[in-house]
Design a protein that fits this description.
This protein is α/β, with parallel strands linked by helices and 334 residues long. The protein contains eleven helices and twelve strands. It has a six-stranded parallel β-sheet with strand order 3-2-1-4-5-6, sandwiched between helices. A six-stranded mixed β-sheet has the order 7-8-9-10-12-11. It is globular, with a radius of gyration of 20 Å. The N and C termini lie far apart (45 Å).
């Protein structure tokens, strides 16, 4: 955070700017990226947002989301934009491996690079960094970034809605990673004119019938409770993906249902992808899942929300995960 104010002079004159966030972008990735996009547009910059892969359609209502460039769809255009950029903002990721092949393009670029992120252990591949693992979200840090530049007068409802969306999704509607400072920021956004009820409705009350059928299948047929380890697991197979026509974003939030169960401390959502098995971990209170993800599943994240992956098959990965539990949550009799 100490050198972020020094970035201000670089933004005084129009530049070609690229904003990049991680593969499989979530609400915080798209919220922080579009908030920064709309903010920088106030100053005459040419700004483009790039994601390695597509974002969930549930966020397609967000202003200018249709202008986001997807590397998987248009790699040549992505390469051209990065090569000609003067400034690259890296949002909501702390290592180039989180953006896959786009990482090679960023690494080769001579542009000034800026990281704004809230994950642990940021890698030093940038020139400027605003990193705070105690922040609720990267969207919260975008608000702070605008303040550090002394540009809060440029905050408008569109920027506010983007920031609010990232905060709302990454905190699970203010259930995780909250702080007094966060509520002050949210209060400022509401005072600005952001309609929090409208955003809640757009994000959480826009499901299709298939989403509820999938949730029912997960809870009835794919849930396992390990009471002795205070752990809940939900898994999905490749056949499940076909049967329920699961698309990007359709499984968002399912893992959190496990934490609604009394005495469950650790929730795992383990899904069979085409080439890997993906692991999403959530926890309550002071129990950290970051070490499990980082040490055993090539991942990382935060204390209460982390993820990783395995190249072993689904059955082997499930067994491996269960064998780890005694080292993190000893058997209890309650």
């Amino acid at each position: 955070m100490e050198n972020i104010r020094e970035l201000s002079p670089l933004l005084d004159f129009p530049k070609d700017i690229v904003i990049i966030s991680h593969r499989n972008p979530d609400g915080d990735a798209i919220g922080s990226s579009l908030a920064l996009y709309h903010f920088l547009n106030h100053f005459g910059h040419t700004v483009r947002v790039i994601f390695p892969s597509e974002y969930p359609p549930i966020f397609s209502w967000m202003p200018d989301s249709d202008k986001i460039i997807i590397y998987d769809i248009d790699p040549d255009y992505t390469k051209t934009l990065i090569e000609k950029s003067d400034l690259i903002f890296c949002l909501d990721f702390n290592g180039l491996d989180r953006i896959d092949k786009v990482g090679d393009l960023v690494d080769a670029s001579k542009a000034v690079k800026v990281m704004i992120d809230h994950h642990l252990h940021p890698e030093p591949f940038v020139d400027f960094m605003l990193s705070d693992s105690l922040a609720s979200s990267t969207s919260e840090l975008i608000y702070e970034f605008i303040g550090l530049l002394g540009k809060k007068k440029y905050l408008d409802i569109v920027i506010g809605e983007c920031i609010f969306t990232g905060i709302l999704t990454d905190t699970g509607s203010f259930k995780y990673s909250t702080s007094a400072r966060l509520y002050q920021i949210v209060g400022d956004l509401v005072e600005l004119g952001v309609d929090d009820k409208k955003l809640q409705d757009l994000i959480f009350n826009s499901l299709e019938v298939k989403h509820l059928k999938l949730l029912g299948h997960c809870l009835n047929n794919r849930m396992e409770i390990l009471e002795e380890h205070k752990t809940g697991i939900i898994y999905l197979t490749k056949d499940d993906y076909t049967e329920f026509d699961i698309q990007r974003g359709d499984t968002e939030g399912i893992v959190n249902y496990l934490l609604k169960i009394k005495d469950i401390q650790l929730a795992a959502f383990i899904t069979e992808q085409p080439t890997i098995v993906k692991i999403s971990l959530r926890s309550k209170d002071d129990f950290s899942v970051e070490e499990i993800a980082k040490k055993h599943f090539k991942g990382g994240g935060h204390k209460n929300a982390a993820g990783g992956y395995s190249f072993q098959n689904l059955d082997t990965t499930l067994k491996r995960f269960k064998r780890l539990l005694p080292y993190y949550i000893p058997i209890t009799n309650s």
